[in-house]
Protein 1
Amino acid sequence: MSLPAHARFVVIGGGIIGCSTAYHLARDHKAEVVLLEQGQLTSGSTWHAAGLVGQLRSSASITKVLKYSVDLYKRLDEETGLATGWKMTGCLRLACNQDRWTEFRRLATTARSFGMEMHLISPAEVKAMWPLMEVSDLVGASYLPSDGQASPSDITQSLAKGARMHGARIFENVRVTGFEMKGERIVAVLTDQGRVACETVVNCAGQWARQVGALAGIEVPLQSVKHQYIVTEPIPGLSRDAATIRDPDRRTYFKEEVGGLVMGGYEPDPQAWDTGLPGGDVPADWQFRLFDDDFDHFEQHLAQAIARVPALETVGVKQMINGPESFTPDGNFILGRAAECANMYVGAGFNAFGIASGGGAGWVLAEWAVRGEAPLDLWVVDILRFSGLHRDRQWVKDRTLEAYGKHYTIAFPHEEYSSGRPRIVSPLYERLQAHGAVFGSKLGWERPNWFAAPGTEPRDVYSMGRQNWFGPVGDEHRLVREAVGIFDQSSFAKYEVTGPDAERALDFICANDVTRPPGRLTYTQLLNSRGGIEADLTVARLAEDRFYIVTGTGFRAHDRSWIESHLPNGAQVAVDDVTEAYGTLSLMGPRSRDVLAQVSPDDMSNAAFPFAHVREIDVAGHRVRALRVTYVGELGWELHVPIDAIGDVFDALMDAGTKEGIRPVGYRALESLRLEKGYLAWGSDITPNDSPFEAGLGWAVKLRRNSDFMGRTASETISARPLAKRLCGFATEARDVVLLGRETILRNGEPVGYLTSGGYGYTVGRPIGYGYVRREEGVDEAFLREGEYELVVATERVPAHIHMAPLYDPKGERIRA
Ligand SMILES: Cc1cc2nc3c(=O)[nH]c(=O)nc-3n(C[C@H](O)[C@H](O)[C@H](O)COP(=O)(O)OP(=O)(O)OC[C@H]3O[C@@H](n4cnc5c(N)ncnc54)[C@H](O)[C@@H]3O)c2cc1C
């Protein structure tokens, strides 16, 4: 079979991800697909995977993707006639200490929130299920009955056969060597066997995805790491249906295979694969190849595994597998379209759970590539979560190795990474440090999370309960509610949108009306074709043809790409990222006007500078772009200061605010303040799965205006029928409960949803959470008010009150249309 001259889709890579994507493109979309594999199918990372298949993740959407994989592996052989080796053995996770046990209790609640069955069982029950296991050090275990194991190569061959049955053409021994580009668009894929013109490319090249992406100008931040496991000879007494085991406190995992065990682990000192090729490229001829056994490095796992399964001490090791797999800096895989190329989608960086993800990842990636829009909220895996920082190979490597090393460590709430820091700092970094700042990092930016009191150590002490910052953050919170505080939010992403068609373009892209006169600012969502919220940002109109957009630090590449890729055809408009040009100081609190008035000759009165307006003002001799807006629900200004002047402006504000007790305030207080006032966070409370109507933001959708905008049709449909879910606030009576998000919401004892975010409100003195209450037939006020509510927190039921309005709003400022 020779290569065709043209195909609508070219999928690069014949591992599990490429085959699954080709299968779904062909089966679900009847698309014309060509898959190109440089060696043979499965010859990359797929053939040597251990084959454990777990499903539960902290994101509901990713859990759904993994559940889909299991459903597909169960029945694929009926369709293709090729078995996948799927065995629903269940998975045991072992807890050896109380913190781990708390983590599992929270996981069990998350599982219930996501509609999965997970049991917490005693050491004796573990022993009964898995008699060869030593359980004397166990506190207990979680058991997820629908997890299992499968044969990676068999699944992949079955998917490939299915793809062919639906019309896809698969070519082995064809290597992609480049792309023919027209601007930012690929028009043809170049190979060592010729050229294939195409409309869309899907890069599923595994650990080669970075170098394949680079051929089209995109960055796929991943790092190959060596991962080892052993396969033992048969172990007498080991059941063929033994549950897979994850023993995170001993950093190891187990799976039954042909009567013996597969055993591997995640060590704290992982080994990156330095290929020796320029740029760290992976050799093209790395097919069905492994590294030499490294028992010295593996010994740490063996010692732990023998303590768990003593039979391992005497059983023979049949084989050791030491293979490379691509890992990412945050432990999540990578899907979607990169900003730099109009028609290359990526599915790579599977962090040693590509077999578990393969079926579902291929499903959503195919949908995404066909429709140009993710079919559900896939933000945590979206390639647009990365930024320019991720072009730094050394940084990616350091952070990736840290993430690998943490694979099995206890996930303490609010835990920060420590590698590659500090990386990007605002000019205020040293000043904030002098105030006792404890920094967190977001997209490489160091941002103050909280400030330690003089004489106390400025560092996080992680625990499963209240952490050491709880008190100081409360003080910061109260300062902002009662007087004035100053936040360094310089990491905010900022763009200027200019040109004769800027108004028309933004009017189409934004759900709210941004066509108000210069000097006004508008809070708006950007909607996808399903009416779901793709972005949540502030648009300030500076002039007839000039807009200033401010959005969250982490959404920099995503929001810009969404705006640029939805500009109306032929529109004369430019989108410039000006993030580094301006530092942002948010001066917030009832006394903020008094402070600002002292350092600015401009009129700060409400009449001269009303809410939801933008003005250029002078502060401490510098021209500053001031936005009267708030995320804490108090009087305040975001001051966007030319970056070189931010030190002067900060010092002047701090001096002017001495009498008011002004202090710098961090992001953890911001979170508490916003929760109390009902300001929503994109990525958790509002996502591409949620419409503004369901989130209580229907007032910000310009349905009454007779203009077309992105998501209008879907918004009309959603707003015209009963809402199947509605975002509500919850507060518990018990004050010592720790809410983190994903706690189950019970109405009259029945699950109706889960918290999308949770925390503590220091003014109301209560734990607070937000979450969608769901009901197929519709959720109305009466339904909400008539229920009795509880939250399930780490498997325990806690009485809660529902709130349809912000929990604290006596006289605060809110953005309304
Ligand atoms: C030791 C080990 C154990 C593991 N255990 C598990 C497990 O228990 N459970 C689990 O879920 N996951 C596990 N994994 C992870 C799993 O193997 C991977 O996540 C998965 O195989 C990734 O699939 P892929 O399709 O992305 O990559 P690959 O299988 O590597 O496929 C990519 C393909 O692209 C091809 N390609 C690259 N460049 C080109 C080019 N220029 N032209 C054409 N073709 C090209 C390659 O030849 C390759 O075949 C394990 C990994 C390792 C290393």
Protein 2
Amino acid sequence: MVKIGDIELPDFPLLLAPMEDVSDPPFRALCKEQGADVVYTEFVSSEGLIRNAAKSVMKLDIYEKERPVGIQIFGANMESMLQTIDIVEKSNPDIIDINFGCPVKKVVSKGAGAGILKDICLMEQLTAEMVKRTNLPVTVKTRLGWDHDSIKIVEVAERLQDVGCKAISIHGRTRAQMYKGEADWKPIAEVKNNPRMHIPVFGNGDVDTPEKAMLMRDSYGLDGAMIGRASIGNPWFFKQVKHFFETGEHLGPISLAERVEAARRHLQMAIDWKGETLGVFETRRHYTNYFKGIPHFKEYRMKMVTSDDSKDVFAAFDEVLDKFADYQF
Ligand SMILES: Cc1cc2nc3c(=O)[nH]c(=O)nc-3n(C[C@H](O)[C@H](O)[C@H](O)COP(=O)(O)O)c2cc1C
């Protein structure tokens, strides 16, 4: 059994990665239904939260049905991050996760996200103070290092553990790599093999087949896999991995009916959450992913992404079901 603080998880849990504009409550709920053991929100700005910015505050919404859920925050200013803990606690998440891995310039240039990999002492202090501020388990998501020449992840992970971090998820790339090249899981395995480590070490990066998840478990010996891009448009990925673990066989393809049903539920949950206008608008970006691969789909996609009325979008789903009934994924 794997534990994050007092949260008990099955062996080799599968975690939905935090993903900006993807890991919203409806998507997280769908992933949870399909087997994700822990889900994380997209990153939320501590500076946005302490200024009560509506966009940031909305990202704190969580559904009961998605638990255990972690809210991920980012920032580099100690006072703002500590105030953020107090704000985030009001949403009653199960976990607070610190983003020490985001590589984008506007985050890194302020010393936040992966920017903090240039100042390990601050990374350690921020984690220590945040752990002291809350009774919730604090976890960290980070990368291997700033660049190839400065990889110290074994030491970093141990220091974070020693100040009370309850689990660490490591993306097997450096900041300099952004998303290029292949994720390297060897340094993550070195973290896990450090005899001083006792908190769960989750591997992240390029797990896009059940076989790779199995490799991460059996050959690299990690405690669980955090899955990002493979779940986009495919919340069934978690079920596919678990089925493979249990049977050694691949689950059959996801049918059109299941895809339409997911899109339908996603839209309905988004409307229930944010209201008709925002719900319709913000679910648009997910449709291409659910229906990826269907040829001559443009006409239907356009209906889905240009209609302002949910009735028209639901009608487009019905049309798709009818028109592409024979399509095999
Ligand atoms: C669209 C998108 C948004 C992301 N947003 C976040 C984020 O908000 N916080 C974070 O820690 N990582 C974020 N990431 C990184 C992922 O969590 C993950 O580390 C990365 O995609 C590698 O895992 P994968 O190969 O399974 O996708 C994002 C990645 C993508 C593709």
